[in-house]
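INFO batch 0412 | record 1 of 1 | parsing
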Amino acid sequence: GFNWLDPVVGAGNTPEQKTKNRKLRQAIAIAFDFEEYVAIFEDNRAQVNHSAVVAGLFGHDTIKPNPVTHIMGPDGRARRRPIEDAKRLLAEAGYPDGRHAKTGEPLVINYDTTGVGPAYKARLDWVTKQFSKLNIQVELRNTDYNRFQDKMRKGSAQFFSWGWLADYPDPENFLFLLYGPNAKAKGDGENASNWQNDEYDRLFDRMKDMEDTPERAALIRRMGEIMQEEMPLLFGTSDEYGSALHQWVSNGKPSNIIRDNLPYLRVNAHLRAQMVREWNQPIWWPLWLLPLGLLAVCIPAWLAWKKRQARTALEEVRA
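INFO prediction complete | emitting tokens
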């Protein structure tokens, strides 16, 4: 995500700067090929998000693929825009070929994150690669989690990565992550990007306590359009989950939101015992192979012994 308080990638103080900063965010969003990320790091078991409303939630289907980052192909599938579109936006933002149009200085983006180990280093290398498509230099600021949280509370981060595990499966619990009054720096809320949009906030206030009706879906759709245009977040990916359960286990529906479902599983003990008895029936026929095997070994040996004895007797007679 982008810190809305930052002068380079944030809101901007003038109408001109607001437009330029928005185009910079959009250019970076196009360059970040999350389809590639899913293929490399998630073994193709994740979905690329087009808004803060992830798949499986009410209202997700009303939000179209992000028109800023994707175009629809002839087969009806969304495809990421070519990098040339990102470079055009970058130039319009005042950074042609990744350099300031007036000073010629390279554009440097500070990336705040946490994580250690070879696996995480590969992800950091991937992030650097995405920025390099636009000739943007990235300064990796990898710190421990406590230090990272402190930066987020102070609003000193510029570009960051942070996940969210919902408290309950409702779009409100994702859309509130961009609600202005929930800004991390100002109110210690969960709006880590500190994004604020008056129209979005008004729509959220109307939507948050509504039942799942067509009216609520329309509000969510408009909120999705606003966040796609403003691009306070890159939206990232959502993991896909599956499970393998025996037929005697119920309530085992996999979910990327509910991770503590073990207390809710039901086990049919009678069916389990029945299936175990059926599966564990003793198989007796291999026992008949044992005497047959012994005969297969002993008969050739006995015939060979008899042949040798007969040959010995014949030699004695001749002698």
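INFO post-check: The longest helix spans residues 289-318.
INFO record closed
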